[in-house]
Amino acid sequence: MRRLCAALACLITIPASLPAGAVRLPAPRRAVAVIAHRGGAGISPENTLAAFRKAAALKADYVELDVRTTRDGKLALMHDSTVDRTTNGKGAVRDLTLAQLRALRVHGPGGAAPQPVPTLDEALAVCKGKVRIYLDQKDADTRRVIAALKAAGMMGGALIYDDPDSLMEWRKLAPTVPVLPSLPSECRKPGGVASFVANRPADGLDGHMLEWTQELVAQAHAAGRPVYADIMGPTDNPQGYAKAIEMGIDGLQTDYPDRLAAYLAERKAQERPVLSVRVGDLNWSVDAAGRTAALRGPGGNIAAGRAPAASVRFGKVETACTSAAARPGRLELRFGETGTVVTLDVAVKPAFATLSVASVTGPQPDRLTFVNIPLTAKGETTDRVCASALALNLKTDVPALPGPSTRLEAACEKRFGLVGARVALMARPYAGLRDALKAAVASSPDLPVSRIGGPWAMDAPEARGSYLFNFGDMTVANVGEWVRTAQMLGVTQI
Length: 494
Prior knowledge:
Elements: H1 2-8, E1 33-36, H2 49-57, E2 62-69, E3 75-77, H3 98-102, H4 120-127, E4 132-139, H5 142-152, E5 158-161, H6 164-173, E6 179-180, H7 192-199, H8 214-222, E7 228-230, H9 238-247, E8 251-254, H10 257-270, E9 273-279, E10 282-287, E11 292-297, E12 300-301, E13 311-314, E14 317-320, E15 323-327, E16 330-334, E17 341-348, E18 353-361, E19 367-374, E20 386-391, E21 407-413, E22 422-428, H11 430-443, H12 479-489
Parallel strand pairs: 1-2, 1-8, 2-4, 4-5, 5-6, 7-8
Antiparallel strand pairs: 2-3, 9-10, 10-11, 11-12, 13-14, 13-19, 15-16, 16-17, 17-18, 18-22, 19-21, 20-22
Helix pairs in contact: 2-4, 4-5
């Protein structure tokens, strides 16, 4: 029946009794909220005061805990309906008194010292002022849980998880306490998230990471709801953390809050910019992991995510840059286990910046992409800021024509020589882009300068008019005939 009601929440209109808007969840301490599942069941006896103290010491944002009612009406913490799995006793929580629960000990991982079963009141006292609680209401009366929160002064430090129908009661009785249901499977479709949160109290959304996609997370964010996903199981590792962050998930519930906290600290250090280069109206920064941290300008960040700033290719195997270090005027890039180290000279001019391959040590790649910056720009003259890359010699391969681009890219190949490849990067509103291109072309001794061609073509009267194409059969013997034909037709260019 509850499943049916949740499904209908994707279809029906919002009830009049539901308050409009959502309760805002507190900002996390890190890039994502760290939620210690049952206090951190992978490192401590679950749902115990010892687990909560350890999670608080790790600066977790929340400890998740499970509340049940004993035979004598007390609120105690136990995930399962029985004590069989987690303690040295047997029996259903509902059939045991609090005194009987007190006599049991909760065992934990890795030889952790067994711990007593705590009450909800004891847990709230331990957590107050140190860590918020993520309360899973397994088997408890809502009014009694609210009374316990009020008595402990924790109404502002709690987040409630339950099924959507039970959370309706929370919204009526404690409208300022944020609630978090799982998104029903029936709502995992275009428009489903917006419909669900419009019809059920949901200040955020839960569910295992494997149930979420990047598109669904985007739907939740568009509806103003953060996603706090479970990551326990085979995804509770750095690869899973990275995937969840890439998807845009806002909080992760983990059995290993120590690992997640350490991962986020390392990731933060890796995301610290090591190089910042102002390119016209934009500021390009590279982080310690060798990724474009941002490309910021008048319209904000136009870099399309944190893409590796460079890569090397050996045969058909491409390896992205994995670390970067900078010193004045230089950027050093490393590429995983390849052993290749690339040093770029970085120079900033008034209208553009140049990156030159100064050295390549270790194994020499067949191809080195030494600039790679995907952009959110459309590559059109109407872009607020138009960015462009320009090859400054014949060693350098820039796939895109000079002009507004969707990606800034420059590469070189071992067969032509890696050292000495050089590119100019510029970013301007379209009206000023040609002036930047002119300055870059004029600065390079390896590029021919024609005042009627390249970025100057639109300024030259000779370049205005129609033109003929010839793709290979023009020779010294017949060039005169081509010129006479063009003149007879009134064409000014071949």
